[in-house]
Design a protein that fits this description.
binds coenzyme A; globular; alpha+beta; 35% helix; Aminopeptidase
Length: 172
Amino acid sequence: MTIKIKRANEQDYKTIVDIGRISVVDAHGASCSAEDMNDYVARNYNDEAIRAELLDPKNIYHLIYVQEQPVGFSKIVLNAAHPNIEQEHSTKLDRIYLLKEFHDLKLGYELLKHNIEFSKANGQTGMWLFTWTGNQRAVNFYEKVGFSIVGSHMFKVSETHSNPNHHMLLIW
Ligand SMILES: CC(C)(COP(=O)(O)OP(=O)(O)OC[C@H]1O[C@@H](n2cnc3c(N)ncnc32)[C@H](O)[C@@H]1OP(=O)(O)O)[C@@H](O)C(=O)NCCC(=O)NCCS
């Protein structure tokens, strides 16, 4: 299996929209009503929204390819402060999504490792993230890499629905 990871640029918006629309629903669909989920995805994963994300220099997106096919993406923000996470110069892992046909092949691990190395090379001391408490696959995955649960909050999916999220932190 030939794997490639590359930093995304503005031209990659369509790839991220296409993977996001499928994989976000697969990962979080069970956490709320179909209406709330569809609304969330429509607002956050459309051409305009992702283009704007890619044009903002603070957002660092990477794409992972298997045999030249894009199968997932990640987003980090360096030096992202959070009131409950007192870790200076730490990176927020804001998004990491693979198409489900490509789960369990260590591709998530490769992509996360790449982001950790990227963060280290940019003077970061750790990484933090939020994840829905019901996403056991993701929680196990992060724990396996060394993240710990350090807090929680309710994440707003829509005007009427919020999901409990863990705060997870990795210090290196
Ligand atoms: C979470 C995700 C990025 C992990 O990537 P992946 O390539 O599937 O994971 P890996 O093959 O690298 O597996 C690493 C570890 O994850 C954990 N894991 C994998 N599948 C699991 C499952 N079904 N249940 C619980 N833990 C699981 C295991 O600890 C595994 O290690 P092991 O195989 O040595 O036991 C990927 O599954 C994904 O994109 N999921 C959907 C999107 C998502 O939930 N994103 C996170 C939002 S916060």
